[in-house]
Specification:
CATH architecture: 2-Layer Sandwich
Helix content: 10-25%
Oligomer: single chain
CATH superfamily: START domain
CATH topology: Alpha-D-Glucose-1,6-Bisphosphate, Chain A, domain 4
Strand order of the largest sheet: 1-7-6-5-4-3-2
Largest sheet: 7 strands, antiparallel
Shape: globular
Strand content: over 45%
CATH class: Alpha Beta
Radius of gyration: 15 Å
Distance between the termini: 45 Å
Number of domains: 1
Structural class: alpha+beta
C-alpha cells in the first residue's frame, strides 16, 4: 500500500445544484445550522467568504470525537460548481501530511450529482485510509440536500 491516495464518492441530490454549490462557496458558515450534529462551527480566519486563499476554521464531529481543521480555499470553479479545501492545521494533519477535499456538482441527464474527492498522503503505513472523512462528507451532503428540498 502506498502513502498517497485518492477517494471519490458520488451522490445524487434532489435539491438545487446552485444552492448546494453556494453553501460551500459563499456560505459555509451556515452549514452548522443545517447539519449541527456533524459540523458545529465554521469561522473565517482570514480573507473573505467565497474567495480563493481565504482560510476557514471547521469544528466537526468525526467518529464521535470533536475535531478541528484550519483549511485554505485552494480552488473555486463556478462553471464546474467546484470548491477545493486544503488542510493546513488541525486533527487531520496529525495523521496525514497532505489532505485536500474537493466538492464538485455535475449534471448527468436530469440528475445532479455531488462528487467528493479526497486526496491525501498518510504519514506512515499504519494510518488508515480516510474513509471516515469521506463518510462525514457524504452525511453532510445528505443533510444539506434534505434541507434544500424541505425549503
Amino acid at each position: 500500500m502506498g502513502l498517497k491516495g485518492k477517494l471519490i464518492s458520488q451522490t445524487e441530490i434532489k435539491g438545487c445544484k446552485d444552492l448546494f454549490h453556494e453553501m460551500f462557496r459563499h456560505k459555509p458558515h451556515n452549514i452548522p445550522n443545517v447539519t449541527p450534529k456533524l459540523i458545529q462551527a465554521v469561522n473565517l480566519h482570514e480573507g473573505d467568504w467565497g474567495t480563493v486563499g481565504s482560510v476557514i476554521n471547521w469544528n466537526y464531529t468525526l467518529d464521535g470525537k470533536e475535531e478541528v481543521v484550519k483549511a485554505v480555499v485552494e480552488d473555486i470553479d463556478e462553471e464546474k460548481r467546484l470548491v477545493t479545501f486544503r488542510a493546513l492545521e488541525g486533527h487531520v494533519i496529525e495523521q496525514y501530511n497532505a489532505f485536500k477535499a474537493t466538492v464538485h456538482i455535475e449534471n448527468e441527464g436530469e440528475n445532479n450529482l455531488v462528487l467528493w474527492t479526497v486526496e491525501y498522503e498518510k504519514q506512515n503505513e499504519d494510518v488508515p485510509e480516510p474513509l471516515s472523512y469521506l463518510q462525514l462528507y457524504l452525511n453532510m451532503t445528505k443533510d444539506i440536500d434534505a434541507h434544500h428540498v424541505n425549503q
